[in-house]
Amino acid sequence: MITVHHLKQSRSTRIIWLLEELGIEYTVKSYDRNPQTHLAPESLRKIHPLGKAPIVEIGEQVLVESAAIMEYVITTFAPDQLRPDSESDAYATYLQWMHFAEGSAMLPVLLDMFTADLNLNDAPVLYYAKKERDLDFAYIDKHLQRYEFFAGSQFTAADIMMMTVLLFATGRGMLEGYDAINEYVQRLSSREAFIVAAGYE
């Protein structure tokens, strides 16, 4: 049995969405953020020393990091689903977007959120963050003008990884004018597995 330790308003929704798409049985243990600090509860540290979501228990394994969890789940339970064949040209594109989500795209979005929460509206880092967001979103939008999904014509785990970033950005009003991204977000938000995962918020 797979247990997903789900922190509300976090990346752990990705894992629930993935499991729903794959039709794999799982259980969810939900946790609320501290209403004052917006941080995860200390109880998550009893599951993993980092105390950050997502945390997934699979047998004796206790795993963190979205992309690592998703790759492990696919490889272990559904090696022929939600990723291109490793011999295909699409596989390299898939890997790029799997890691672009957290390696490049998420940080500029989070910097805007953190500085706003701290009332640092004139912080120099905001100019850096906006420049990087503009670069990232223009790149993403151009890609989605050409392709139905991030890996091409096939819905994959890379879409789940990237959707989290795009949903965070949507919530901050960052995607105005990026028509291809907005169409993509609307289209994927209607997937049944996404709706189930979003219901845990």
TrEMBL record:
PROSITE patterns, per database record: GST_NTER
Residues annotated as domain GST N-terminal: 1-81
EC number in record: 2.5.1.18
Pfam families assigned to the protein according to its UniProt record, in alphabetical order: GST_C (PF00043), GST_N (PF02798)
Transmembrane segments: none
GO MF: glutathione transferase activity; peroxidase activity
Record's keyword terms, sorted: Transferase
GO cellular component terms, semicolon-separated: cytoplasm
Catalytic activity: RX + glutathione = an S-substituted glutathione + a halide anion + H(+)
Entry-linked InterPro entries: Glutathione-S-Trfase_C_sf, Glutathione_S-Trfase, Glutathione_S-Trfase_N, GST_C, Thioredoxin-like_sf
Family: Belongs to the GST superfamily.
Name of the protein this chain belongs to: glutathione transferase
Species this protein is from: BD1-7 clade bacterium
